[in-house]
Design goal:
Largest sheet: 10 strands, antiparallel
CATH superfamily: Lipopolysaccharide (LPS) transport protein A like domain
Structural class: mainly beta
Strand content: over 45%
Number of strands: 10
CATH class: Mainly Beta
Number of domains: 1
Distance between the termini: 48 Å
Oligomer: single chain
Number of helices: 1
Shape: globular
Length: 188
């Protein structure tokens, strides 16, 4: 007797499977973490007592190949010198070169949080992440540059008047070898 697959089991396995498919090819540029953070904006307010700096107006934060842009970016520094940057915008965005390949990881959301200590980026509200032709969307995406793992979450049923949002992913097939690039086989 053939049993139908359990839909709940398949649904619970889908997010980890998507992470496994997505993660191996999403390496962040390693040299970025040793580079200084540069900021440009129309205005800045620096509070040395609170260890915060608020940049407003067409803000650009860069660290090596990492670029974060938004309408406003707030930088806080902890007692150990690690920084957290939170970018806000109708659509704030980031871009970072991938290690060892000619490609970038790009992300979008209304709020992006970057933590220099954990080397993580959190994208919130209408979050979208792209790598080449692959794309994932959800309400919250976490990208960890150390472990090279993405986690994508939809919104919950308890998110006010809005219906729950599911995660959406488009993963392109790997290109097949062409006849010209296939190895030539010689008969014995």
């Amino acid at each position: 007797m053939h049993r139908a697959p359990n839909k709940f089991l398949l649904a619970s396995l889908l997010p980890p499977v998507l992470l496994l498919l997505w993660a191996p090819a999403s390496f962040a540029e390693r040299a970025d973490r040793d580079m200084p953070i540069n900021l440009e904006a129309d205005q800045v307010l620096i509070d040395d007592v609170q260890q915060t700096s608020t940049f407003t107006g067409n803000v650009r934060l860069s660290q090596g190949s990492l670029l974060i842009r938004g309408d406003k970016i707030v930088i806080t520094q902890d007692k150990d010198g690690f920084k957290r940057a939170t970018a806000y915008g109708k659509t704030a965005d980031f871009r970072q070169k991938r290690e060892g390949v000619d490609g970038y990881v790009e992300g979008y959301g209304e709020r992006i949080e970057y933590n220099t200590q954990s080397e993580t980026l959190d994208l919130h509200i209408g979050a979208r992440l792209k790598r080449d032709q692959d794309e994932v969307r959800g309400e919250h995406i976490t990208y960890n540059a150390k472990t090279e793992i993405f986690q994508v979450n939809g919104s919950s049923a308890n998110s006010g008047d809005k219906p729950p949002q599911r995660v959406h992913a488009v993963l392109q097939p790997k290109p097949k070898e062409t006849a010209a690039s296939a190895p030539v086989q010689v008969a014995p």
